[in-house]
Amino acid sequence: MLILADHITQLPASPASLLEIDAIDVHYGAVQALFGVSLRVRPGEVVAVLGGNASGKSTTLKSVLGLVKPTRGRIALDGQAVHGKPPADIIDLGLASVPEGRRVFAEMSVQENLLMGAYPRRHEKEAIAADLALVFEAFPRLAERRRQAAGTLSGGEQQMLALGRAWLRRARMVCIDEPSMGLSPRYVDAVYEVLFRWKAEGQTILLVEQNARIALELADRAYVLQHGHVVLHGSAQQLAQDPGVQKAYLGAA
């Protein structure tokens, strides 16, 4: 069922939810960026947050990661409140982040960047070596450049590296911000090939994306934000067929 914003200011608590966001407001100084945003992510689910520029998508993700602090409302992981906690403490609960702009360690090599993702599980040497091989298999360009400084990679290669770093984290939930932004179609295909693989393996993903068409192909459910408000949410299939979503985000006449 598609649900309009007036009916979702408060979503019912669900013990099956890994992430629960309840009616959060976020301000940047005097400017309010989010207005009563609520959403849920269940284990093994891919949830997309869609919207145009300045819709509040990235602010929602940053709130989950503790990079911005809600002025009202609640964020919980496995029922444990995390709003107001430092980002490092939230990440330690089993999250990984693929941020907008990639944010690789420019002076470090590709392989060193990848191993930074595995640092929380650094004692699992055999498992890390196996996962590193999987990343290089999925992204042969990274394998070719494993000793190259990450700052010398192209934008598409750096996005692959950011995904690979999250892969090595083996997180309970991966938070991904605009993975297709600024990439050529070839690199978008390579990135989403890995995301579809993660979905098939049961990886929980919270995805912020302007490319609504490909995001709705990947996602199980999605939320649409406008000017900091959730205006619509439902299954990805339902949203893809909604005339308003088609007109606003999918290029339908």
UniProtKB/TrEMBL annotation:
InterPro entries: AAA+_ATPase, ABC_transporter-like_ATP-bd, ABC_transporter-like_CS, BCAA_Transport_ATP-bd_LivF, P-loop_NTPase
Keywords in alphabetical order: Amino-acid transport, ATP-binding, Cell membrane, Membrane, Nucleotide-binding, Transport
Top-level taxonomic group: Bacteria
GO BP terms in the entry: L-amino acid transport
MF (Gene Ontology): ATP binding; ATP hydrolysis activity; branched-chain amino acid transmembrane transporter activity
Pfam hit, one: ABC_tran
Domain named ABC transporter: residues: 19-252
Family: Belongs to the ABC transporter superfamily.
Protein name per the record: ABC transporter ATP-binding protein
Species for this entry: Noviherbaspirillum cavernae
Lineage of the organism: Bacteria, Pseudomonadati, Pseudomonadota, Betaproteobacteria, Burkholderiales
